[in-house]
Amino acid sequence: xxxxxTSWEAAVRHLFADAYPYDATGPRRHKDWVLDVLALMARAVxxxxxxxxxxxxxxxxxxxxxPTYPFAVHPPEYIAPRLHEIDRTSAENLLLALTDDCCTLSxxxxxxxxxxxxxxxxxxxxxxxxxxxxxxxxxxxxxxxxGTLDFMTSHWxxxxxxxxxxxSEDCGLIVVSDTEVGxxxxxxxx
Length: 190
Fold this sequence. Notes:
single chain; alpha+beta; 8 strands
């Protein structure tokens, strides 16, 4: 699937406009891509293509004293074990689940588009990173096959990366290619 800036940005804006998102892409500069994730969390790198993501907290007053807000400052040794690899289908489902609070596919009910149209938007987002990309999440919803997520279960957990005093939930997807690292995160207070 070939994508362009307009279609990618439109998909990101449409899917995550009603969430509390941090959706950004930065360059992959390290073999240990967690270091690139830290740069994204610190907002220290621009999008390599100049494409626009979403950063709901960009203008939050808390950022003056704490530039990574709403993320907490963590070393790579903290973050790496909290992320696990998932397959592309689970990554697509996770993008759709991140469109609102509680990380569930029931969030799709609020859209007027069909589920297939929404899945096309998720595929557009993932297409930017190519077929060889890997997908990683802090969400624990183990599916029947290792590396998958089960969105039908009501029992799930996650390893938070945000400041816990400000957000009761933070869930996300990290997409890693040879040249870019994308981060799609949602924060909620439910």
